[in-house]
Amino acid sequence: xxxxxxxxxxxxxxxxxxxxxxxxxxxxxxxxxxxxxxxxxxxxxxxxxxxxxxxxxxxxxxxxxxxxxxxxxxxxxxxxxxxxxxxxxxxxxxxxxxxxxxxxxxxxxxxxxxxxxxxxxxxxxxxxxxxxxxxxxxxxxxxxxxxxxxxxxxxxxxxxxxxxxxxxxxxxxxxxxxxxxxxxxxxxxxxxxxxxxxxxxxxxxxxxxxxxxxxxxxxxxxxxxxxxxxxxxxxxxxxxxxxxxxxxxxxxxxxxxxxxxxxxxxxxxxxxxxxxxxxxxxxxxxxxxxxxxxxxxxxxxxxxxxxxxxxxxxxxxxxxxxxxxxxxxxxxxxxxxxxxxxxxxxxxxxxxxxxxxxxxxxxxxxxxxxxxxxxxxxxxxxxxxxxxxxxxxxxxxxxxxxxxxxxxxxxxxxxxxxxxxxxxxxxxxxxxxxxxxxxxxxxxxxxxxxxxxxxxxxxxxxxxxxxxxxxxxxxxxxxxxxxxxxxxxxxxxxxxxxxxxxxxxxxxxxxxxxxxxxxxxxxxxxxxxxxxxxxxxxxxxxxxxxxxxxxxxxxxxxxxxxxxxxxxxxxxxxxxxxxxxxxxxxxxxxxxxxxxxxxxxxxxxxxxxxxxxxxxxxxxxxxxxxxxxxxxxxxxxxxxxxxxxxxxxxxxxxxxxxxxxxxxxxxxxxxxxxxxxxxxxxxxxxxxxxxxxxxxxxxxxxxxxxxxxxxxxxxxxxxxxxxxxxxxxxxxxxxxxxxxxxxxxxxxxxxxxxxxxxxxxxxxxxxxxxxxxxxxxxxxxxxxxxxxxxxxxxxxxxxx
Length: 800
Prior knowledge:
Layout: H1 11-19, H2 60-77, E1 82-87, E2 99-106, H3 130-143, E3 152-155, H4 158-166, H5 182-194, E4 199-205, E5 207-209, E6 214-216, E7 227-228, E8 305-311, E9 314-319, H6 325-342, E10 346-350, E11 359-367, E12 370-374, H7 381-397, E13 404-405, E14 411-412, E15 420-422, H8 431-434, H9 436-448, H10 451-454, H11 476-487, H12 499-504, E16 520-521, E17 538-540, H13 549-568, H14 589-605, H15 616-622, E18 625-631, E19 634-640, E20 647-653, E21 656-661, E22 665-673, E23 680-684, E24 687-688, E25 692-693, E26 699-707, E27 725-731, E28 736-743, H16 760-769, E29 771-772, E30 795-797
Parallel strand pairs: 1-10, 3-7, 9-10, 26-30
Antiparallel strand pairs: 1-2, 2-11, 3-4, 4-8, 5-6, 8-9, 11-12, 13-14, 15-17, 16-17, 18-19, 19-22, 20-21, 22-26, 23-24, 23-27, 25-26, 27-28, 28-29
């Protein structure tokens, strides 16, 4: 599992992981069911992001793999819950929003969905069509005591597609339009294949009358006799022409508001809703069916709808937006009862339930090349272990993996995050709202110990990464951060919940001011402008997906220990001004590990005796050995180091401008043992490496920064690649190289691999082929002494 390491060293991570199978020491304050040392009722909640291999996550296979994982996780966590196929994030430049597969269940264990056989499986369609959609909505209307006459058929906009057909080239067909826009090409093929006069589905206007405690409906008055949908590919519920409904004054538009998460709520009813089929149209206020007069505010018009649409043989029920969780669950129960009555398998889609602490859920969503899993909050160490293990195990059974191999054989993470979210059982019970000094302690401690930022990170670090440190590229922010810390109250002082957000929001950002792309993200801590931002949550983003569940659990144990420590005793040390040392000394694995050992030692002194050996798998995975060579009792070891890739300026690209990342730079750590400093030096490509003593006799460490390959656009584009790197152990008394090694960034024979490694054995063979103990410089060799620079004294930059 180590990268660029001999076969004999491949068992390092495995052996350490197996040794951890014996239960590690867990202080009483971190054991399940214990509250000693931890914030009251607020054990850290964990969101784990699971990523898949790229070859399993492309095109239509991604949705299929994600659906299989969803069903597997439902058996573990939400067997009595319902499955929801919703809409996820919509990023700029993407034609459609991403999907989000969710499972929702009650926190008190009461069932939300009683018959799992009524949930449709997209991989096994039942052959349902428009007729089943109409029959279902009419039956649902009767069950909710609504009139069937309000059920309306929805059609594609014939006039738009006729206009679109007229714009096609004369020598193509609508069924084979040869358009460059693939989504538009598929859209035309689907619409014309179904005929423009065929109904897409059916809609029933519906909203909750909170005063009467019942659902109400009504007619929709449109200029066209038919209900024409907005052109697009989304479910019909997202394409309803709501702006064509009768006009209403701004104060008369009954748009549902997000419920305030800080308001205390009563327990959900223990008795399941029961629905007896009544006479259609019973107790309908017919006076609301009138058409509004000209310029009359139509406040009585229902402006949301539940829809039934058959796609691919599966009957989808589009859930409308609902403000109260009780109303949403009431509608879900009515849908299940109707499906049971008609013996129809359905799939819920549309709007998800309102965010509520009485409801638990997990989501499976797509990301470029990977699948992301956001799991429910855990209330203790036992829950963390079972949840994390289940996610890893079920992902493996679904033929997904939490690691990948690159073309050159490097073993890396998936490129996605393993972010952890800490909070409380309810927003106001969050430890960071009750004790802002806890947030200050965590930020300060991470700042003073860079190993916490880099040991668990991915390949992309630095000021433009997904989780930059506060002091990366913004050195003045440390001074401003200290001023902000002075505004936070001390441990026992009362503080308004919004104080931490207002004091730190504009400092915990990246260089562009993005509040989400920060090492400590407080987007959902207590943002006053939105209800979804007031959840009392802190997201730690400087974690990449580890390949093994126990590696993730070790990270979570470390976080729990730090939270418990700073809850008891706040961290008040002054912030260190690292300067350029951050991207020099702490890019080398040796100094990252030394700093992390200090973290473990401090925790032990505070009463949380963790073992640094538990984190050796992370060290070997993040900083794999590239090769080793021994010459005359001198041992030289090359190990992968960190390299902050710079983001380049804007350049023209397809569809607009783009900013590229210069990933052509790499860095190696050179570790030498048994060296006599006044006689022997280590040279790379004929230049002396600035070796620094480690504190042990004859042991030195240095870094080599080099260009690995030549991209089309790069920083200093005229500098050619420096690979292969030739390392020599030079005897300055004899002016010759005693031996050395050669490191290649690609196959030394020039072979170009077209496929990714199929397993770890093939990846290992590719890594071994790139390191050779032969090839040192022959003959006389004179190397000038190293001349460390003031900015980066630990690193030899071959570009300079």
